[in-house]
């Protein structure tokens, strides 16, 4: 046993050096081609929807970290096996490492935007891994022969250092490359009204009326932050159009800009969940851009939008063009779009869940039919028609909180985009009657609304529930539904203890 353990470590170390240096090579060429990221993204794409939903429920926004961790753990386990095998059969051990590299290479090359250069990190790993393993095996045998471990330890230390330099160097290079470029944001022809002051200062623990960009939730199928330059960016409108049109970023900025406060919501948000945010978006009306190409409504029923990497989102054409404020956005809360949120251009369409409307890094709008072309999530059996459901969330107190008796302020947010906004929010204690909560200021029908309710809390354990009614007079449904396939529903209810 004792004699074997070092060999497992050699396999792991050889692999860490290979992965570290491959990561650095990827950072210098295309960060998305890094072996761990490429394999991770492929795992995401291949994971069946129910399992993905389970992972999002279990791990929340940590799901990506856990995914990358699991991929790494799996790789290192196989690496240890490769090391153990190398003890007797070096070539076979190296062969296992090469098989791992081959998986990474296939993953990197199977991305829609893959280029031949994306093979470079795998080539680096294919050379470094076996060479490092051979070096460790040789030094081990030498150490066994002459009884001195000095060279072996030095070799191990040098390889560990190389792995660290590769991994950290890759990080530094990637973060330098993903630094935002500065663009001058145009002024809107149609500015939004000043957003009223919300209840942020009045109700401790309530969600802020405007979500700061750095706190805005993120949902991506990819693991890295894309680097798309505004100079290389173009938007093509094609498919069932009178004439195909391609716009540059400057041409887009020259079009009339509108500014709107819109609350974005993810279909994967469970009742009471965090995947919702309110921001001020600046951009061009989607219909203005579509009109440049002239759409053939006798044929097309969907807008298939494609991001710079080939990821697709489909939007019902009739809903996107029914007069709502669908925007090709370049600005978010007075700043250019952050890279994480789609720099340089993304779609924002009020009232539709993000997965059928909010394409980030968008580069193509194809007018087509649901019969002819299927988008990423359509392929995975999610709904194609998914208006955002009316929802209310309790932000404070937190579930299972221990409270002092006396006046407790219950507060949260509610949203009913493209349904006339929020007309009423009601709170229920311990299954009793519904009482009207007080609404915060109105930020427009497509924006969420803060609310609060004073509750004279008495000792014991209590259940707090909330529901909303839309401006169109539609009450939020109490019927429970999971996020798949068209959004969660049900009442948000939580338990607290009053001392
Ligand atoms: N290119 C691209 N656009 C995308 C996604 C994506 O994975 N890739 N995710 C979508 C989903 S599911 C949602 S909810 C919103 C989230 O936008 P945000 O990350 O800016 O909050 O973006 C949408 N646009
Ligand atoms: Mo989403």
TrEMBL record:
Domain of life: Bacteria
Annotated Pfam families: Oxidored_molyb
Alphabetical UniProt keywords: Membrane, Signal, Transmembrane, Transmembrane helix
Transmembrane intervals: 64-85, 90-108, 120-139, 151-170
Signal peptide as annotated in the record: 1-24
Oxidoreductase molybdopterin-binding domain ranges (all copies): 224-376
The protein's name in its UniProt record: Oxidoreductase
Organism: Nocardioides aromaticivorans
């Amino acid at each position: 046993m004792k004699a074997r353990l070092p060999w497992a470590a050699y396999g792991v170390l050889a692999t860490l050096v290979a992965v570290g240096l491959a990561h650095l090579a990827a950072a210098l060429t295309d960060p998305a081609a890094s072996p761990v990221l490429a394999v991770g993204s492929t795992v995401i794409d291949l994971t069946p929807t129910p399992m993905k939903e389970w992972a999002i429920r279990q791990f929340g926004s940590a799901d990506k970290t856990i995914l990358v961790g699991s991929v790494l753990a799996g790789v290192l386990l196989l690496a240890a096996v490769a090391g153990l095998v190398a003890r007797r059969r070096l070539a076979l051990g190296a062969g296992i490492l090469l098989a791992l590299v081959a998986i990474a290479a296939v993953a990197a090359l199977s991305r829609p935007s893959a280029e031949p250069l994306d093979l470079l990190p795998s080539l680096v790993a294919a050379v470094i891994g076996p060479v490092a393993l051979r070096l460790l095996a040789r030094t081990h045998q030498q150490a066994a022969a002459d009884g001195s471990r000095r060279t072996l330890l030095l070799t191990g230390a040098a390889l560990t250092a190389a792995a660290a330099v590769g991994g950290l160097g890759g990080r530094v290079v990637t973060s330098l490359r993903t630094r935002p470029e500065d663009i001058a944001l145009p002024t809107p022809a149609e500015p939004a009204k000043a957003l009223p002051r919300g209840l942020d200062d009045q109700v401790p623990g309530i969600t802020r009326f405007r979500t700061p960009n750095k706190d805005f939730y993120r949902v991506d199928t990819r693991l890295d932050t894309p680097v798309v330059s505004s100079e290389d960016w173009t938007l093509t409108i094609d498919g069932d159009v009178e004439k195909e049109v391609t716009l540059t970023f400057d041409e887009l900025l020259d079009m009339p800009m509108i500014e709107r406060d819109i609350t974005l919501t993810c279909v994967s948000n469970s009742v009471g969940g965090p995947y919702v945010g309110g921001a001020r978006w600046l951009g061009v009306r989607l219909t203005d851009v579509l009109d440049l190409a002239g759409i053939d409504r006798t044929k097309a029923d969907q807008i298939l939008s494609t991001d710079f990497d080939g990821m697709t989102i489909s939007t019902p054409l009739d809903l996107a063009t029914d007069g709502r404020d669908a925007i090709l956005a370049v600005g978010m809360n007075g700043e250019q779009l952050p890279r994480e949120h789609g720099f340089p251009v993304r779609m924002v369409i009020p009232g539709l869940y993000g997965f059928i409307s909010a394409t980030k890094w968008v580069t193509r709008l194809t007018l087509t039919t649901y019969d002819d072309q299927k988008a990423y999530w359509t392929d995975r059996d999610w709904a194609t028609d998914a208006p955002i459901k009316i929802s209310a969330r309790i932000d404070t107190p937190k579930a299972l909180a221990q409270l002092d008796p006396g006046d407790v302020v219950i507060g949260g947010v509610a949203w009913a985009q493209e349904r006339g906004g929020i007309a009423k929010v009601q709170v229920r204690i311990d299954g009793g009657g519904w009482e009207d909560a007080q609404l915060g200021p109105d930020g427009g029908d497509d924006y969420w609304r803060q609310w609060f309710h004073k509750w004279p809390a008495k000792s014991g354990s209590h259940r707090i529930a909330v529901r909303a009614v839309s401006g169109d007079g539609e009450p939020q449904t109490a019927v429970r539904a999971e996020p798949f396939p068209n959004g969660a529903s049900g009442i948000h209810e939580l338990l607290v203890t009053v001392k």
